[in-house]
Amino acid sequence: MNARILGFLVTVTAAVFGISAPASAIDAVLYEVTEAVKVTPRGSSFKSSAATLTGDVAAGTALCPTWLTQQLNMAACTIVVRATGKADDATGVGPAGGDFDVVVQDWNNADAPEIVVMKGNISGTIDLSPAFQKQQPLGSISGRFSARGLPGTVMANAKADGTFSGKFRLPFRQAGKASYLLDDGSIVLAQPQEFSLGQAMVRLEVSFAAGK
Question: Are the CB atoms for 136 and 179 separated by under 8 Å?
Answer without folding.
Answer: no
